[in-house]
Amino acid sequence: MGACCVPCIGAEYIRVFPKAIAYFCRLYMLLSIVIPTWNNLGFAKLCVESIRKNSAWPHQVILHINDGSDGTLQWAIGEGIDHSYTPDNTGICKAVNEAAGLAKHNYIVYMNDDMYVCPQWDTHIAHEIAALGTDCFMLSSTMIEPIDYKNPCVIAKDFGQTIETFDEKGLLQICNTIEKADWTGSTWPPTIVHRKYWLITGGYSIELSPGVSSDDDFSRKMWEAGCRIFKGVGRSRVYHFQSKSTLRIKKNDGRKQFLMKWGINQSTFNKYYIRRGNPYTGALAHPGPLHWEHFRAWLKRRFVA
Fold it and tell me: Given this structure, which CATH class describes domain 11-251?
């Protein structure tokens, strides 16, 4: 089955009956994990290996292979990994959508290929989904990153930036001991949404190809679909190597596209709507009229963009 069988039991029951809930989730909680990759075989192998080794359940892994001339396509076929394929780099948006079309389960995860999932990452997601009592949500796991950019949604701890320097043993020893509270503003992968809302929103917007600002755009589409739960799960951890495949592409002007599409600045949406980086306090309310922010956006659209 693709869904957790206990979607409406509530947080109180999870607190009182954690073993029973874990048992039911163990039987039924499966994810379809979508991973776009572009000639990044070493990281893709490590990512898939970590999912297989550190997950509680046998989730479906779906790669979208761009080009694949480095051997990624042959490796995926040999490993029996579900995949879609394009002979050139089709960009994040189309890649994610193509792979998501192969999803077998009710919860779709979008993950980068330069991520390593930590033990219990999926059990914490399962418990969150069971506690929410709705399928209208957007969740994120919390990234551990080697470079500290003062991002309040991230744990900064260096376990290596390359496969050769990766301190897997060190990561596994402390990854679940670092304190990190839940945060609001789910946008960045790994993100988890119900298949129903993936279909309602149409997935990632291909007009933002190759993909700059597509994460923010998808969150905005979820907001328009009625989602008010944008939660970063502090205890669900993945290590992110911060490999920059975007350095190999010609970037789209995502901020301008977001402004022209939605009529507000991307920064306004993140600050006032989903309040990214703030402590999680529950479902979000509409921020109100924001007259000044809308006026600024109008000026930029009229005279700058």
Answer: alpha beta
